[in-house]
Protein backbone atom coordinates (compact mmCIF):
# COMPACT_ATOMS: atom_id res chain seq x y z
CA UNK A 1 0.00 0.00 0.00
CA UNK A 2 1.32 3.42 -0.93
CA UNK A 3 1.77 6.16 1.62
CA UNK A 4 0.43 9.59 0.77
CA UNK A 5 3.30 11.56 -0.72
CA UNK A 6 4.04 14.99 0.71
CA UNK A 7 3.51 17.91 -1.66
CA UNK A 8 6.51 18.26 -3.90
CA UNK A 9 6.97 21.01 -6.40
CA UNK A 10 9.67 22.24 -8.70
CA UNK A 11 10.27 25.85 -9.66
CA UNK A 12 12.47 27.45 -12.28
CA UNK A 13 14.54 30.33 -10.89
CA UNK A 14 16.56 32.60 -13.17
CA UNK A 15 19.58 34.79 -12.45
CA UNK A 16 19.60 38.26 -13.99
CA UNK A 17 22.25 40.95 -13.76
CA UNK A 18 25.07 42.69 -15.57
CA UNK A 19 28.15 40.80 -16.62
CA UNK A 20 30.67 40.29 -13.80
CA UNK A 21 28.32 40.65 -10.79
CA UNK A 22 28.79 36.98 -9.84
CA UNK A 23 25.89 35.08 -11.40
CA UNK A 24 28.01 32.14 -12.51
CA UNK A 25 29.77 32.08 -9.14
CA UNK A 26 26.40 31.96 -7.35
CA UNK A 27 25.25 29.24 -9.71
CA UNK A 28 28.39 27.24 -8.91
CA UNK A 29 27.72 27.62 -5.16
CA UNK A 30 24.17 26.38 -5.67
CA UNK A 31 25.64 23.45 -7.56
CA UNK A 32 27.91 22.69 -4.59
CA UNK A 33 31.09 23.81 -6.31
CA UNK A 34 33.71 25.85 -4.52
CA UNK A 35 34.45 29.48 -5.28
CA UNK A 36 37.03 30.30 -7.91
CA UNK A 37 38.46 33.65 -8.96
CA UNK A 38 38.59 32.48 -12.55
CA UNK A 39 35.67 33.07 -14.83
CA UNK A 40 34.78 30.72 -17.65
CA UNK A 41 31.44 32.35 -18.27
CA UNK A 42 31.65 32.78 -22.01
CA UNK A 43 32.94 29.28 -22.58
CA UNK A 44 30.03 27.31 -21.17
CA UNK A 45 26.47 26.82 -22.26
CA UNK A 46 23.45 28.24 -20.54
CA UNK A 47 22.88 25.69 -17.83
CA UNK A 48 20.50 24.73 -15.10
CA UNK A 49 20.89 22.83 -11.87
CA UNK A 50 18.45 21.47 -9.27
CA UNK A 51 18.44 21.34 -5.49
CA UNK A 52 15.69 20.18 -3.16
CA UNK A 53 14.83 21.93 0.10
CA UNK A 54 12.66 20.49 2.86
CA UNK A 55 10.40 22.46 5.20
CA UNK A 56 8.57 20.14 7.60
CA UNK A 57 6.68 17.71 5.37
CA UNK A 58 7.03 19.90 2.31
CA UNK A 59 9.65 19.56 -0.36
CA UNK A 60 10.48 22.14 -2.92
CA UNK A 61 12.95 21.81 -5.75
CA UNK A 62 14.63 24.86 -7.19
CA UNK A 63 15.88 24.60 -10.74
CA UNK A 64 18.38 27.43 -11.01
CA UNK A 65 19.32 28.79 -14.44
CA UNK A 66 22.46 30.74 -15.26
CA UNK A 67 22.92 33.00 -18.27
CA UNK A 68 26.54 31.87 -18.56
CA UNK A 69 27.60 35.18 -20.06
CA UNK A 70 24.98 35.42 -22.80
CA UNK A 71 23.71 38.69 -21.23
CA UNK A 72 26.87 40.32 -22.60
CA UNK A 73 25.37 40.13 -26.06
CA UNK A 74 22.07 41.47 -24.68
CA UNK A 75 20.44 38.48 -26.22
CA UNK A 76 18.95 36.43 -23.44
CA UNK A 77 16.57 34.09 -25.20
CA UNK A 78 12.87 33.92 -24.46
CA UNK A 79 13.56 30.33 -23.49
CA UNK A 80 15.58 31.62 -20.56
CA UNK A 81 12.57 33.52 -19.16
CA UNK A 82 10.00 30.88 -20.16
CA UNK A 83 7.99 29.48 -17.22
CA UNK A 84 10.31 31.01 -14.61
CA UNK A 85 8.63 31.24 -11.19
CA UNK A 86 11.22 33.53 -9.68
CA UNK A 87 13.98 35.90 -10.73
CA UNK A 88 17.05 36.85 -8.70
CA UNK A 89 18.38 40.28 -9.67
CA UNK A 90 22.07 40.55 -8.88
CA UNK A 91 24.27 43.62 -8.62
CA UNK A 92 27.77 44.22 -7.27
CA UNK A 93 27.58 46.26 -4.04
CA UNK A 94 30.85 47.95 -5.03
CA UNK A 95 29.61 49.04 -8.42
CA UNK A 96 26.68 51.47 -8.69
CA UNK A 97 26.51 50.91 -12.45
CA UNK A 98 25.42 47.31 -11.88
CA UNK A 99 22.67 48.49 -9.48
CA UNK A 100 21.50 50.87 -12.21
CA UNK A 101 21.62 47.90 -14.58
CA UNK A 102 19.12 46.09 -12.34
CA UNK A 103 16.85 49.13 -12.47
CA UNK A 104 17.16 49.99 -16.15
CA UNK A 105 17.55 46.57 -17.78
CA UNK A 106 16.76 43.58 -15.61
CA UNK A 107 13.71 44.64 -13.59
CA UNK A 108 12.02 46.03 -16.74
CA UNK A 109 12.74 42.75 -18.54
CA UNK A 110 10.57 40.98 -15.95
CA UNK A 111 7.89 43.67 -15.67
CA UNK A 112 7.46 43.45 -19.43
CA UNK A 113 7.09 39.67 -19.45
CA UNK A 114 5.52 38.63 -16.15
CA UNK A 115 4.93 41.20 -13.39
CA UNK A 116 3.48 38.46 -11.13
CA UNK A 117 6.85 36.73 -10.85
CA UNK A 118 8.42 36.45 -7.37
CA UNK A 119 11.68 38.37 -7.35
CA UNK A 120 14.69 38.92 -5.12
CA UNK A 121 17.26 41.72 -5.00
CA UNK A 122 20.78 40.56 -4.25
CA UNK A 123 23.90 42.65 -3.82
CA UNK A 124 27.04 40.52 -4.12
CA UNK A 125 30.74 40.89 -3.16
CA UNK A 126 30.20 42.32 0.34
CA UNK A 127 33.68 40.96 1.15
CA UNK A 128 35.11 43.83 -0.92
CA UNK A 129 32.78 46.49 0.45
CA UNK A 130 35.10 47.87 3.14
CA UNK A 131 37.72 48.82 0.60
CA UNK A 132 38.87 52.37 -0.09
CA UNK A 133 36.10 53.07 -2.59
CA UNK A 134 33.43 52.12 -0.02
CA UNK A 135 31.85 55.57 -0.30
CA UNK A 136 30.28 54.54 -3.53
CA UNK A 137 28.96 51.20 -2.28
CA UNK A 138 25.32 50.31 -2.80
CA UNK A 139 23.88 50.05 0.72
CA UNK A 140 21.09 47.74 1.81
CA UNK A 141 19.09 50.89 2.69
CA UNK A 142 19.45 52.07 -0.87
CA UNK A 143 18.29 48.68 -2.17
CA UNK A 144 15.30 48.78 0.20
CA UNK A 145 14.33 52.27 -0.95
CA UNK A 146 14.42 50.98 -4.51
CA UNK A 147 12.32 47.96 -3.50
CA UNK A 148 9.70 50.26 -1.97
CA UNK A 149 9.63 52.38 -5.11
CA UNK A 150 8.71 49.40 -7.31
CA UNK A 151 6.50 47.42 -4.93
CA UNK A 152 3.30 48.40 -6.75
CA UNK A 153 4.70 47.01 -10.01
CA UNK A 154 6.65 43.95 -8.95
CA UNK A 155 6.62 41.43 -6.08
CA UNK A 156 9.99 41.62 -4.32
CA UNK A 157 10.10 38.81 -1.73
CA UNK A 158 13.61 39.37 -0.40
CA UNK A 159 16.42 41.87 -0.32
CA UNK A 160 19.90 40.56 0.48
CA UNK A 161 23.55 41.48 0.41
CA UNK A 162 25.85 38.49 0.19
CA UNK A 163 29.34 37.34 -0.62
CA UNK A 164 29.49 34.34 -2.89
CA UNK A 165 33.21 34.24 -2.12
CA UNK A 166 32.89 33.89 1.68
CA UNK A 167 29.39 32.34 1.37
CA UNK A 168 27.98 34.96 3.75
CA UNK A 169 24.20 35.10 3.26
CA UNK A 170 24.20 32.63 0.37
CA UNK A 171 22.48 29.72 2.11
CA UNK A 172 19.89 32.08 3.62
CA UNK A 173 19.20 33.47 0.15
CA UNK A 174 18.43 30.05 -1.37
CA UNK A 175 16.34 29.02 1.66
CA UNK A 176 14.30 32.20 1.40
CA UNK A 177 13.68 31.66 -2.30
CA UNK A 178 12.59 28.08 -1.65
CA UNK A 179 10.34 29.11 1.26
CA UNK A 180 8.75 31.91 -0.71
CA UNK A 181 7.97 29.60 -3.63
CA UNK A 182 6.50 26.74 -1.63
CA UNK A 183 4.37 29.15 0.39
CA UNK A 184 5.77 28.33 3.82
CA UNK A 185 6.19 31.97 4.77
P1 LIG B 1 28.88 36.78 -14.01
O1 LIG B 1 29.45 37.41 -15.24
O2 LIG B 1 27.74 37.59 -13.45
O3 LIG B 1 28.49 35.35 -14.19
O4 LIG B 1 30.02 36.86 -12.89
P2 LIG B 1 31.08 35.74 -12.46
O5 LIG B 1 30.42 34.72 -11.58
O6 LIG B 1 31.79 35.24 -13.66
O7 LIG B 1 32.03 36.61 -11.53
C1 LIG B 1 32.80 37.66 -12.06
C2 LIG B 1 34.06 37.82 -11.21
O8 LIG B 1 33.70 38.22 -9.88
C3 LIG B 1 34.85 36.51 -11.07
O9 LIG B 1 36.22 36.81 -11.13
C4 LIG B 1 34.47 36.02 -9.69
O10 LIG B 1 35.48 35.24 -9.12
C5 LIG B 1 34.25 37.32 -8.93
N1 LIG B 1 33.30 37.19 -7.81
C6 LIG B 1 32.07 36.62 -7.82
N2 LIG B 1 31.49 36.68 -6.60
C7 LIG B 1 32.38 37.30 -5.78
C8 LIG B 1 32.37 37.67 -4.39
O11 LIG B 1 31.43 37.43 -3.60
N3 LIG B 1 33.48 38.32 -3.92
C9 LIG B 1 34.57 38.60 -4.72
N4 LIG B 1 35.59 39.23 -4.15
N5 LIG B 1 34.59 38.27 -6.03
C10 LIG B 1 33.53 37.64 -6.55
TrEMBL record:
Keywords: Nucleotide-binding. Transmembrane segments: none annotated. It comes from the Eukaryota. GO terms for molecular function: GTP binding; GTPase activity. Belongs to the small GTPase superfamily. Rab family. This is Ras-related protein Rab-6.2-like. It comes from Branchiostoma belcheri. The chain holds residues 25 to 209 of 236 of the full protein.
Amino acid sequence: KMNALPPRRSFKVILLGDSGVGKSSLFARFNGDSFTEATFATLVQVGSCRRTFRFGDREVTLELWDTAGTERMLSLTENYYHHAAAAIFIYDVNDQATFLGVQSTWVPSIRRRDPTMTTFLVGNKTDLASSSYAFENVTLDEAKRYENSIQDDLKVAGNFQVSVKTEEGVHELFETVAEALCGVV
